[in-house]
Every structure is written in C-alpha cells, then in structure tokens.
C-alpha cells in the first residue's frame, strides 16, 4: 500500500488524492462521507480533492443523493496518466528555453538510491562508449542498463574487482595523519562517451557518496587510470613468471618508493643527506 501511494505521489497526485483513489479502487464506489470516515479526515478536504479528481477525469461522479464516486480502472488510469505525462514531457523538451553555455562544475551525490538513479539515467543516454571500473556487486545492480546499452551498439570497456577479501594488487596510499579512512567501502568509476563521469564509494551498509562532473580534467584522469591499469594487467598476464624472475621483490619496491606510510616518509626524509642542515660543502 505504501509503495502504491508513493508512486501515485511521484505521478503528481497529492497525499489526499492518492489515498482517495486507492480507497475508491478498493470499495468500487463510495460517497464522500464514507471516504472521509474511512480515512479519518475532514469531509471538506475529501470533497475538495474529489472535485479536483473529477474535473481531471480520474474519478467519475454518479447520479443520486448522496453522490457516489468511482475511480477509473487501472488500465484506463495508466493510459490517461501516461498520455498526459508524455504530452507534458514533449512540450517541455521543445519549449524549455535554451540559455548560454554552462560552466563545467562538480556536484556531489549522497545515498545509494540517488547514485543509482543518476547512473541509470546517464547509462540510458550513452551513445558510443561506457568505461566501467567497479566491483562485481555494483555491476550487478546496473546489469540491465549495461546490457541494454550494449544492445544499442554502445562499446563497453570493463574492469572488475572480485570481492572485499581480495588483496590490493599494489600498495595503497595511506592517509597522512588525521582520521583513518572509513573501512568497508568499494570504489567505482564510470566514464560515459568520454564527456561525463562519476567517481564514488559504496559502503557495506548501503550508503554511498559520489562526485559527478563533465569537467575534462577528471574525465581524462579516470580514462588514463583505467588504461594504465589495463596495460599493467595485460603485461603481468603476458610476462607472468618472467616478470617475477627478473624483478622479484624489486617490482613491489618500485611502487613502495612512491606509496609509503607517513612514518616511512619521515624516516626517509631524515636519512636524506641533501636535506640535512649538517651536510654542507666547505
């Protein structure tokens, strides 16, 4: 019942109108007095809502005293609402003023539902290419939209992480002081048609945060990160044991030179003679 009322409100009906329509659909027909009594609200509010619904054609008013009301059957109701919504959307699309250029900006999205809604809308608009770097859990939530895009001829480029227990392939940049990072999150990114991107984090409790932008700098950074990761992955797959044999521990140390903990960084700075005040040429 609550879901039905929610969707009716999403279609533009008020809370009162939605409850009245559901009540009439349940009873078949009823007087304004009976509806008000059943809902526990004032008759004046019910009669005002019934008058609006009758004028709009969603509710019929029968002859007799007192007048008895009935709502259209679900198929008729859906057809009428759909027709009006489509007509309004077409009018807005054609008549909405188109102003000057808008500066590229970043905006934040919070909440799982808002994030998935924004992604769904953009994936449905994709025309040429979608670059996806996600965990399998997040990919499964958007499986339908991604499959539809692929059927439209959109090129999909994928990078998947397997699960929460998988170890990071390379050292991860640690925080420098302050609060430690919130644990249990899964990073993801989408770049659509090389012009729109979303970068965010989804947590095990269902909360999510993301940044969305069409700014070319972040779009380019995400594309570069994706291509570099895929190139490294293919090199490691291709070279395999040869890479380990030739480099051994030195391979991981290459990363560790740049990705280190704060204490390691401080120690490294202290041991650097070029940065010491006691090391001077006479």
From TrEMBL:
Domain of life: Bacteria
Molecular-function GO term, any one: DNA binding
Region (Disordered): 262-282
A Pfam family assignment: TrmB
UniProtKB keywords: DNA-binding
InterPro entries to which the protein is assigned, alphabetical: ArsR-like_HTH, TrmB-like, Tscrpt_reg_TrmB_N, WH-like_DNA-bd_sf, WH_DNA-bd_sf
Residues in Transcription regulator TrmB N-terminal domain copies: 8-75
Protein name per its UniProtKB record: Sugar-specific transcriptional regulator TrmB
């Amino acid at each position: 019942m609550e879901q039905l009322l929610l969707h009716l409100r999403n279609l533009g009906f008020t809370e009162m109108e939605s409850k009245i329509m559901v009540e009439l659909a349940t009873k078949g027909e009823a007087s304004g007095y009976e509806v008000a009594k059943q809902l526990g609200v004032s008759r004046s509010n019910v009669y005002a809502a019934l008058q609006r619904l009758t004028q709009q054609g969603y509710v019929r008013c029968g002859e007799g005293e007192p007048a008895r009301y009935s709502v259209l059957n679900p198929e008729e109701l859906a057809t009428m609402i759909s027709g009006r919504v489509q007509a309004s959307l077409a009018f807005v699309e054609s008549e909405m003023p188109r102003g000057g250029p808008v500066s590229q900006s970043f905006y934040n999205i919070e909440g799982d539902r808002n994030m998935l809604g924004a992604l769904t809308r953009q994936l449905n608009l994709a025309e040429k290419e979608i670059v996806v770097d996600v965990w399998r859990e997040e990919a499964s939530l958007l499986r339908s939209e991604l499959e539809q895009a692929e059927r439209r001829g959109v090129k999909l480029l994928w990078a998947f992480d397997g699960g929460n227990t998988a170890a990071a392939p390379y050292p991860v940049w640690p925080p420098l002081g302050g609060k430690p990072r919130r644990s249990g999150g899964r990073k993801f990114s989408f770049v659509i048609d090389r012009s729109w991107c979303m970068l965010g984090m989804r947590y095990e409790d269902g909360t999510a945060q993301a940044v969305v932008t069409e700014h070319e700098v972040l779009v380019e950074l995400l594309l570069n990160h994706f291509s570099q990761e895929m190139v490294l992955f293919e090199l490691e797959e291709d070279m395999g044991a040869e890479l380990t044999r030739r480099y051994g521990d030195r391979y991981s140390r290459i990363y560790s030179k740049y990705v280190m903990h704060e204490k390691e960084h401080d120690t490294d700075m202290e041991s650097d003679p070029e940065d010491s005040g006691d090391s001077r040429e006479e």
